[in-house]
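Amino acids appear as letters; backbone shape is given numerically. Here is one record.
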Amino acid sequence: MSRQPVKISEDKLEEIREAFSLFDTNKDGQIDYFELKVAMRALGFDQKKDDVLRVLQQQGSGDGSKISIDAFTKVMSEMIAARDPADEYKKAFKLIDENNSGIITVASLRRTARELGENIAEDELQAMIDEFDLDNDGGINEAEFIKIMMSGH
C-alpha cells in the first residue's frame, strides 16, 4: 500500500478499507462511480455527483471509471483529516439528542447505550450527566458536549 500523505488513526484506516471492501462486490480491487459514492457516504461524506466524478478523474485508474483501494484510501484519508472535529461532534450530538430537545438526558444516553449494545446502570448514566452538566440544567447541551469531546484532544 502506498504511503499516506496525512496521518489518521489505524481505526480510521480500517474503516476506510472496510468501506471499500464492502462495496467492491466483485472483489477486483476497484470500485466504480456508484460504489464510490455509496462508500464515501458510508464514511460520512455525502458528495455531489460532480465531486465524485472529479475524484474518479483525478485518482481513478486508466479511463477514470474506477478507483483502486490505494487511491480510495489516500483520498478518504485526506478528507477525514480535513474534517473539523467540532462539526463531527455536532453531528454526534444530534444523533444522541433524538427528539431535538437541545440537551442529552439520561433517557437519551440510555437509548444510545442500548443501541450500542451497552447495559449501563441508571445511576452511572446520571453520574455522567451530573459530571458534565456545567450549567446544572439536568442535561448536557451541545456546547457542553463539544467541550467534553474537545478536551480529549
In short: The two ends are 28 Å apart (CA to CA). Residues 10 and 16 are 10 Å apart (CA to CA). The mean pLDDT is 89.
